[in-house]
Amino acid sequence: MIQKAIGLLGGTFDPIHVGHLRPAIALLERLNLSEVRLIPNYIPPHKATPDSSPEHRLAMVQLAASQTTGLVVDERELKRDRPSYTLDTLKELRAELPDTPLCFLMGMDSLCQLDQWHGWQQLLDYAHLVVSHRPGWQPDFNANISALVKAHATSDAKQLSRQVSGCIYLFDNPQLDISSTHIRNCVKEGNNPQYLLPEPVLNYIRDKGLYQLPVL
């Protein structure tokens, strides 16, 4: 019997902020998921090495998740101690949860570049891709991604619960113009990033002196 679907959101989370959390909460509520797992990367394959240690980033994600029922933290990629490939994570989760639909949340920019990901053609064997995008925005897909979307796209959210993997669902969701880079730069310049990230996370940054923010 197919179980209630769960959401997955991976990221460096250096630091985690409202721009990560709002889509996760919207996904949780609008798709009626049992939970959304926040999965911090150890070393992201397509980004620079994080400024903060895995321990600090995990602590900040745990603080953020504690503020919202339904958000939970999955530490598996940090425990691998090697580059974080989404395919490896999805394979592990599918082995653990064979009857549970997995909804992997990504932005439209990530979908446009999906054919640069490790094992990208296998991702839909293990999960659905739920793609958050700005209403009215027309993406510029290359031939690989156009073919993938044509073969797997659905506009029926209920389809994500009827099968455990294999669908691409475009998720209308106004995206907030907030980035971890902006927050780090804000801190380094001595400015206040309040309201861009949860207050417990901001307090943690202050307490630990992360991103060169002076301890108050």
From TrEMBL:
Cytidyltransferase-like domain mapped to chain residues: 8-185
Pathway: Cofactor biosynthesis; NAD(+) biosynthesis; deamido-NAD(+) from nicotinate D-ribonucleotide: step 1/1
The EC number(s) this enzyme carries: 2.7.7.18
Chain coiled-coil ranges: none
Gene Ontology biological-process entries: NAD+ biosynthetic process
Signal peptide: none
Molecular function terms from GO: ATP binding; nicotinate-nucleotide adenylyltransferase activity
Annotated keywords: ATP-binding, NAD, Nucleotide-binding, Nucleotidyltransferase, Pyridine nucleotide biosynthesis, Transferase
Catalytic activity field: nicotinate beta-D-ribonucleotide + ATP + H(+) = deamido-NAD(+) + diphosphate
Job of this protein: Catalyzes the reversible adenylation of nicotinate mononucleotide (NaMN) to nicotinic acid adenine dinucleotide (NaAD).
HAMAP family reported in the protein's UniProt record: NaMN_adenylyltr
Family the UniProt entry places it in: Belongs to the NadD family.
Protein name (record): Probable nicotinate-nucleotide adenylyltransferase
Native species: Oceanisphaera profunda
